[in-house]
Amino acid sequence: MTQLANILIVEDDPTIRTILQMLLRNGGFTHVQTASRGDEGLEAIRRDRPRLVLLDLMLPGLDGLTVCRRVREDPSLADVRIVMLTAKSENEDVVRGLELGADDYVTKPFSREVLLARIHAVLRRYDPMAAGKDLDGLLVDERGGSARLNGELLTLTKGEFRLLALLASRPGRVYTRAQIIDSVQDEEKSVTERTVDVQLVGLRKKLGGWAAHIETIRGVGYRVKP
């Protein structure tokens, strides 16, 4: 299914744009469009509704963060997936982009293999025909409020379960610390960054070897590896 996905590249650098276009086509994606400006990219998204957008941050017309925000404000574009392209030093922009609804990000200069893997991972996460919710032996029952690892019930606090459920809900997606705090917020007591750190330490201990799936993205947040 992913090979048939329509992908839009929004990138103002013509050399990078050409490299991305060739990379995707060589990777089996036959429907690849490009835009060199943010406003043109947003227009193309609204018109063509691509399955996934590779979105640069520094763009003429509209910057990538504004494009991301406007896409996420439009309910009719809810199925459009967004992977940001950014420089390593732009942690603040990465955090803002993820909080605005980007699904993942790739740093420049990027590895071609990593980029393709990230794209496939994002598309699989939102593929209705994708495999079930078993994550290498971990099963999270959000409705029942329980989690099992290799069939064994995990004894988790309310905060630990909420944290695990959030991270496991979309493997590969990076959640910022602010998003995690909002998700695990408890009506009875305030949740801080320190609270999240404590919950994460406790969660990792209880997960044992499976905790290696939880990755810390320095300066940004956490994710479960896809």
Descriptive overview:
The protein is 41% helix and 21% strand. It has helices spanning 14-26, 38-48, 64-73, 91-100, 112-125, 158-169, 177-184, 193-207; strands at residues 6-10, 31-35, 52-56, 81-87, 104-108, 138-141, 146-149, 152-153, 175-176, 214-217, 221-224. The protein has a five-stranded parallel sheet, with helices on both faces. Helix 2 packs parallel to helix 3, helix 3 packs parallel to helix 4 and helix 6 packs across helix 8. The radius of gyration is 18 Å and the shape is elongated. Mean pLDDT is 85; it is low at 128-132.
Number of H- or I-type helical stretches: 8
- What Rg do the Cα atoms give? 18 Å
Q: Strand share of the residues?
A: 15-25%
Category from helices, strands and their pairing: alpha/beta
Shape: elongated
> What order do the helices and strands follow?
EHEHEHEHEHEEEHEHHEE
Biggest sheet character: 5 strands, parallel
Give the terminus-to-terminus CA distance. Answer: 18 Å
Q: Residue ranges: pLDDT <50 for 5 or more in a row?
A: 128-132
Widest β-sheet, arrangement of strands: 2-1-3-4-5
Question: Taking all residues together, what is the mean pLDDT?
Answer: 85
Q: Which range best describes the helical content: under 10%, 10-25%, 25-40%, 40-55%, 55-70% or over 70%?
A: 40-55%
How many β-strand stretches?
11
Name some characteristics of this structure.
21% strand; alpha/beta; 3-stranded antiparallel sheet; 5-stranded parallel sheet; 226 residues
